[in-house]
Amino acid sequence: MNFTAMLRVSRLDLTLLWRNRTAMFSVFGLPLLFAGMLVPMKGQDIGGVDGALLQGTGHLGFFLLFAVFMNLVTVFTARREDLTLKRLRGTALSDAEITGGGIVTATAMYALQVLALVVVLGVAFGGRFPADPVLLLVGLAGGVAVFATLSFVISGITPNAELAQLTVLPIMFGCMLGGGVMFPMDALPDWLAQPTRLLPLSPVVEISRTGYFGQDFYDHGAHPSVGVLEGWRTCLPSFIVLAVWGVLGRSLAIRWFRWEPRHA
Q1: CA 109 to CA 50: how far, in whole Å?
Q2: What is the SS3 assignment for 209?
Q3: Quick one: which of 77, 76, 63 has its CA closest to 110?
Q4: Residues near 239 by Cβ (< 8 Å), separated by ≥ 6?
Q5: Gap between the Cα atoms of 109 and 199, Å rounded
Q6: What's residue 242's pLDDT?
Q7: Does the pLDDT value for residue 131 go beyond 70?
Q8: How far apart, in whole angstroms, are the C-alpha atoms of residue 162 and residue 20?
Q9: What residue ranges are annotated as transmembrane (predicted)?
Q10: In what helix (H) or strand (E) does residue 246 lie, and over which residues does it extend?
Q11: How far is the C-alpha of 6 from the C-alpha of 103, rounded, in Å?
């Protein structure tokens, strides 16, 4: 796989994104809106953690839905319907280079969002440097891989780019309501908390909070402090859930992703 070729495709994706105001708002406007929602939560104690920091660390994972998932579903669907994917497949580019360019662009934009949010949490909300930045980055990278894979799946069942904003909604709302973004999942009844931990966003949020605070956010309401090695051990179930979603998403993407419109 030629990384230079992938970057050329990535530049094309960035140009198309810049021309699409709806996509630009989804990637940059909505995260700013959600970041503004942290202000009323500052100073509120939720499970022994400041409410703004708790929700902010949830947003580190939640922004995946805009910058990566929704963005790539729209990009892949639009490119398929205007036959761009078909034309690119007729060039020397490999399939991995064609799709990888879009993923590189989405990942770069998401990385900027994460960096900006971490700075905002530290400067405006009294946050801190992540207790385990490596754990945090690995968890977010796993989230990128899973939601990029799911974007192939949802693009395959999306008839056109205009409907892409609708076909992503079930996953987005499910992750928004049950992914632990607004509050720790251990605050839910056990019969509800355990199933919500199987959603694709839930493990990303749990790993992000554990890596940021240096506390156990998997299955302890008191969120005890953990060391570096203990933090990784605590997050092992979350990594397993991510891996299962990655395997499932890849299997469905191979079956459902399409390079040409159905009528072609």
Answers
A1: 27
A2: helix
A3: 63
A4: 139, 142, 203, 207
A5: 23
A6: 96
A7: yes
A8: 12
A9: 21-39, 59-78, 98-122, 134-154, 166-185, 236-257
A10: helix 236-256
A11: 9
Mean pLDDT is highest, among 36-50, 207-221, 238-252, for 238-252
Q: Is the dihedral of CA 77, 81, 82, 83 positive or negative?
A: positive
Average pLDDT over residues 183-189: 70
Q: pLDDT-derived band of residue 218, with 50, 70 and 90 as boundaries?
A: confident
> Which residue has 């900027």 as its token pair?
112
* Per-domain residue ranges of the chain: 3-256
Cα angle 61, 193, 170 (rounded to 5 degrees) comes to 55
- Give the count of beta carbons closer than 10 Å to the beta carbon of residue 111: 15
How far is the CA of 260 from the CAs of 123, 142, 174, in angstroms?
47, 29, 29
The alpha-helical segments, DSSP class H, found in 90-201 are 95-124, 133-156, 164-167, 169-178, 190-196
Query: In terms of Cα–Cα distance, which of 260, 239, 220, 262 is closest to 98?
Result: 260
Q: What pTM, to 2 d.p., does this model score?
A: 0.89
> 187: which residues sit within 8 A by CB, 6+ positions away?
46, 47, 193, 221
Tokens of 49: 């953690």
